[in-house]
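Cross-posted from the bioinformatics board.
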Amino acid sequence: MTLGTFIIVSVIKIVIALFVLLTGVAYTVWLERKLVGRIQNRWGPTRVGPFGLLQPLADGAKFLFKEDITPPHVYKPLYIAAPMIAMIFAVTSMAVIPIGDWVTVAGVHTPLQITDVNIGLLIILGITSIGVYGIALAGWASNSKYSLLGGLRATAQMISYEVALGLSLVGVLILSGTFSLRGIVDAQAGTWWGWLPKWNFFQGQFVAFFVYLMAAFAETNRVPFDLPEAETELVAGYHTEYSAMKFAMFFMAEYANMFTVACLASLLFLGGWHGPLFGPTWLQEILPVFWFALRVFAFIFLYIWIRGTLPRFRYDQLMKFGWKVLLPLAVANLVITGLVVALRA
Amino acid sequence: MPDNYFTRYLPLLIYFVFAGALASAIVLLSWIVGQRRPTRAKMQPYECGILPTGDARERFSVKFYLVAMLFILFDVEAVFLYPWAILLRDLKMFGFWEMLVYIGIVLVGFFYVWKKGVLDWSTTRGESL
């Protein structure tokens, strides 16, 4: 493949990925409103289109035509840059996530991934860490008390749980021996006794999985860790002073981050796109993508289910849980995993 | 895929540029299309209808700084653990004991911080630091 074809193929994949991601984000909002509605014994959106399916489009148009307020008391450059930083880095982490095996389309053999780099996991961790800046800067630049408190809380929460999240992944890295997300998924191929899949979850990383899951909820500021935007005490937290599309961009960033952590959980702990393959050749090429999408959907569903079920933590409980429970658990997990692997090696 | 190592990062760069262009386009479009009817009340910082007193450039709890410092320490620890985790199969038990000493030293610091009350947000104990 020449460099020209490579770039053209990449651009096509990027456009498709961005379109799918942003549509997915819009419809996750719809799904969340619908599911939380049903959990609370009401209907959720029903008016715009069948089952309210056109609601995201209507919301998008509404956000666009709303007044874009830039209050005089804000620090303007950072006030405008903050939602952009949050969104750009939330979206960019998708670039290294593989959604399936290699395919051949129109004579071009290419992986179902925008770029297959050998440090994919490090890139995702790095990029999602930069996302914290968007929230911290939004809180500070707004120059409003609610925003500042929300931004500070969000920053402290996200960096606290990032430690537990980072350490919970070490166990997976020990087992697979590579940073490449494709390599990590390949290491989970096959089954034991013909039925139990060799996912990292079943290879003894279940403690790491639950630590990751809880840290990921905190990283994305979702219930029960949604203190940064605790509406009963902070109005809307760090985006109190934002309106129109800038406000929507924080939501796009949040939901895109949900997709990233859902994809990462599927890839690292639940075997990525591995699943039973059957049927004709074309079906066998599509099925891995389907299995992967199914896992990601299950995670998104779990997010919404928990949102409809659990109350919010208190701030001191949140910090205590992250530092005194999740961090020691993650360290214990990595030491035990390391011991077992080193003894076997 | 071309063999050059750096061309693998080219799509990442292109993706970043696309995402940046998209974000700028959204902000710009919203600024152009949106209506503008500023009023005095609308331009004040939102404080639930109460007249704002002073701005938000005030002092805040030192605990946030402490958490940031702890984050640096433990994230650097995680960064050191990553290459070790990748190579553990080659390092075998020797690598395991070496890293156990390192983790032990970090944990001593962690328990000092714990006992000092930096991680307690409900009491005032940590504020005597």
